[in-house]
Design brief:
Radius of gyration: 19 Å
Number of strands: 5
Number of helices: 2
Order of helices and strands: EEEEHEH
Distance between the termini: 37 Å
Structural class: alpha+beta
Largest sheet: 3 strands, antiparallel
Number of domains: 2
Strand content: 35-45%
Shape: elongated
Strand order of the largest sheet: 3-4-5
């Protein structure tokens, strides 16, 4: 089953005179892209011209234990193990577009 997503792209370039150009892109799933991934933890790192986003999964029991330790005022471990679900390397512009789309989607607190 091929699912398609229409993704608006905002392109701010000098050739458009500083205007925002919006183009709809029809994105089709690749051969292995149909597998759903679940993440309850995200880590973001910057590099030269790219942003690396690691999506991970922390075991719910680990999260429960950490919350219990914090509430009790006990020392929490320096390191907790998580399983990486996916790593994505984005251009700075793509990361900016992602942040913009997430800000539009998520309600402000």
């Amino acid at each position: 089953m091929a699912e398609q997503n229409d993704v608006p792209i905002e392109n701010k370039t000098e050739t458009t005179g500083g205007h925002v150009l919006q183009v709809n892109v029809r994105m089709q799933q690749g051969e292995h892209a149909g597998q759903p991934l679940y993440s309850n933890f995200v880590s973001v790192q910057g590099g030269q011209g790219i942003v690396i986003v690691d999506f991970g999964f922390l075991d719910p029991q680990t999260m429960h234990t950490l919350n219990r330790l914090v509430r009790a005022g006990e020392k929490i471990p320096d390191t907790v193990g998580a399983r990486m679900s996916c790593r994505i390397a984005l251009s700075v512009e793509a990361a900016h577009n992602l942040a913009h789309q997430l800000n539009q989607l998520l309600p402000k607190k």
